[in-house]
Amino acid sequence: MKEKHPEFVARLEEHGLTYTKVSSEDDDPSSFTGSGWKSTYKTDDKNVAQERAAKLGAKLEWIGNSAKITTGPVPAVRLHKESRRKTWFNSLAVSYNGPANKKFCRGDTIVELGNGDPVPDDVMEDYLKFLEEECVAIPWKKGDVLLVNNLMVLHGRRPLLKPPRRILASLCK
Description:
It is a single chain. By secondary structure, this protein is α+β, with helices and mostly antiparallel strands. The protein has a single domain, classed as Clavaminate synthase-like (Double-stranded beta-helix, 4-Layer Sandwich). The chain is built from five helices and six strands, in the order αβααββββαβα. The strands form two sheets. It has a four-stranded antiparallel beta sheet with strand order 2-3-1-6. A two-stranded antiparallel ribbon has the order 4-5. Strand 4 and strand 5 form a beta hairpin. The longest helix has 14 residues. The radius of gyration is 17 Å and the shape is globular. About 15% of the residues are buried.
């Protein structure tokens, strides 16, 4: 991305990203996030949800029983402490709601640069093409285990061919 769109990457590094999502009360398995605000903040009390969101750096605005959740600006490119390499650390591919991304985004999430500028459509079109070109599908066999450094590897999900699958996740320092 830095080779093809250096100005955009510089703006990402300077301003970060702001995400806005409209979340219903209930979980929605068809959404990539899947969680309603009650599950996200582990409460059915709007005031408690508001307090918990604020502690996480998010703002909630109530729209009936739904919540408009705004997070950011947050860094979009981070420095990996051990390797000293810059890493692409964001959810642009699933949050961008422009014409280039009807494949992934359902329209309940909006992303913009941290200064309020929109993410350019032409940049996102190139980014999504880049993701497809660089994607590596791991052929799974029964009993396989995969460890991923989430700070260094951009990962995605593909539709299941044969359910069920079981995912055991652990976040480690």
